[in-house]
Specification:
Length: 391
């Protein structure tokens, strides 16, 4: 039986990690997979996480099973930061812990499918794994262009897709720091989206994977809070990979918002059954560390300060790129107006390959760069490499 399987290409983004590690050039530049780096190019464990882990070692008295919902202290502790005052307090919302943001997206889409969703509207380009999960779940993707050539969101494309959609459709939107374009909806644009969605049968799914790395913790939550405040139903996938630096510990959360408390209980019972059949229960350690941070005001402030310094560094790199005049005709100016870790450069697959071969610059084949991979020490080398291949 197993002999019938066709060879699959490795995941293009994750394959970059191995290619970069195997490159022996000392001045190589990693702009591939979405991992935050400090000004020294490191990805250290957050100080707040270290503090929480020390506390956990001292106080955790059992590693016995928790259940498919995971650590509910973690799930509930995130709510004020993600949803603020928009969190429905009447039993319309409940959450579960998931293995990373991927687990949350997977669970949200599996639940949507079980509830009768057949098609998912999605702005493209998007995070490549979104399409892979849809394909694996045999959900049809209805694509529209996410961004315009001028680097702003394509509201007409979204409006047209929603106008053609109806019962049995969901729409997947990035809460902030759009991956891969960095093009986020403004607050006015979110208001316009919500005005359509609140009276539409289309089910919103908001993927929030980079809260705090755009304009601020509160600002980055504008869209998800607007949707939750005004739409009768919504699904939210949340990742702590980036804003707690917990990548390999796989820490995420899934929230469902329904019309009433009974519907929420039923939705969670279905999500629990799906989780049980997929991964039984999520890994505990990272979620427990986040819970310890969120229960302790001193650690919470330390965490928020760390996120702020990440955000400020990303913004500084963006500003420097936007001001570069010598990028071989590649206009980097829009990067200064966009947000988060990612930006798309208008380069061909051949130019991406040439940047890798000739200059040791690693980026996704789509032309996506991880802005956080740039430092004051390598930014000029990157711009000059870009000028070499694109000029
Ligand atoms: C990325 O887009 O690079 C990150 O979200 C990491 C991943 O899992 O793809």
């Amino acid at each position: 039986m197993l002999n019938r399987l066709d060879q699959q290409a490795p995941d293009a983004l994750l394959a970059l990690i191995k290619l970069y590690n195997a490159d022996e050039r000392p001045d190589k530049i990693d702009l591939g997979v979405g991992v935050y780096r400090t000004a020294d190019g490191a990805t250290p464990v957050f100080k707040a996480i270290k503090g929480a882990e020390r506390k956990l070692v001292e106080t955790q008295d059992s590693k016995s099973y928790l259940g498919p919902e995971g650590d509910m202290g973690f799930v509930r502790g995130l709510i004020p930061h993600v949803f603020g005052d928009a969190a429905p307090g009447d039993g319309r919302m409940e959450g579960m812990q998931t293995p990373g943001g991927t687990g949350a997206v997977r669970l949200a889409l599996s639940l949507a499918k079980k509830a009768g969703v057949k098609r998912v509207l999605m702005g493209v380009p998007s995070w490549p794994n979104h399409a892979q999960i849809l394909d694996d779940l045999e959900l049809e993707m209805v694509a529209f262009d996410h961004a315009n050539a001028d680097g702003a969101a394509n509201m007409d494309g979204l409006r047209a897709a929603l106008a053609d959609a109806g019962e049995g459709d969901a729409v997947l939107l990035h809460g902030c720091c759009h991956n891969p374009t960095g093009v986020d909806y403004t607050a006015d644009e979110w208001d316009a989206i919500v005005a359509i969605l609140k009276d539409s049968p289309v089910l919103p799914l908001i993927d929030v994977a980079y809260q705090g790395l755009g304009a601020g913790m509160e600002e980055d939550a504008y869209g998800v809070r607007a949707v939750v405040s005004h739409c009768p139903e919504a699904l939210v996938a949340y990742s702590c990979d980036k804003n707690f630096g917990l990548y390999r510990d796989r820490v995420g959360a899934f929230y469902v918002i329904t019309t009433d408390a009974d519907a929420t209980v039923r939705a969670i019972s279905n999500a629990s059954a799906l989780a049980r059949a997929n991964w039984s229960m999520p890994p505990d350690h990272g979620g427990a560390a986040v819970r310890v941070i969120l229960e302790d005001p001193v650690l919470t402030q330390q965490w928020l300060d760390e996120v702020q310094s990440m955000r400020e560094r990303i913004a500084a790199v963006r500003a420097k790129l936007a001001a570069s005049s010598n990028a071989g005709g590649v206009n980097l100016e829009p990067l200064g107006r966009q947000q988060g870790m990612f930006a798309m450069l208008p380069v061909s697959k051949e130019q991406v390959q040439q940047l890798r071969d000739d200059h040791g610059v690693y980026m996704a084949g789509s032309g996506r760069i991880n802005v956080a991979g740039l430092t004051l020490g390598n930014i000029d080398a990157f711009v000059s490499a870009l000028s070499d291949v694109a000029g």
